[in-house]
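Board notes (copied after class):
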Amino acid sequence: YSLERLEEMSKLYEEHKQQYRPEFRGPVFLKEHEMYAFVLQQGYKGVPILPCQLSKAETKAGWVNTRCYACVSENGIEIMSLESTFDILGSTNSQAFLSVGEVLEMYCENYGSARGVSETVTQIGLYYLPVLTNEEAEEFTAKPIWFVYGNVERYTDQGLSITRRTTAYDAVTGEKLAW
């Protein structure tokens, strides 16, 4: 909130505090304070870009804060923030991407069923991973990858244990990526 908005809320609280329990302390949120919050994600060619980047040597990924959000009320935009974006240059690999079915088959081959273990895929998504190509100019190319998110359930002497698993695959070659 802006300082003016906080002062306005404080004034409203003082005006309306007798309507509330005496032990209540803090700002009062009234109908005029209602807002919609929008969180945006950068995309490239219609596919979301992951909020991380791969080094030029493609050896490690580092997370980058790329949040973009806005809060809008009947008065207009109250809060807006854009922390950073990626400047994607050139064209990406024009080869066809692997299908969801092909990716799931690879996932099942990598993590075949083991006794006492149950694997559930909870989400699968296609993303572009920014690859840093020019550090001085902060230029990137985009590498298409499939992310598979799953839960691994194991039954032990202590009971059920659930672990989350995230696996990344190159969307063109199918190579499993270290993540």
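Comment from the instructor: Residues 117 and 154 are 5 Å apart (CA to CA). The first strand starts at residue 36 and ends at 40.
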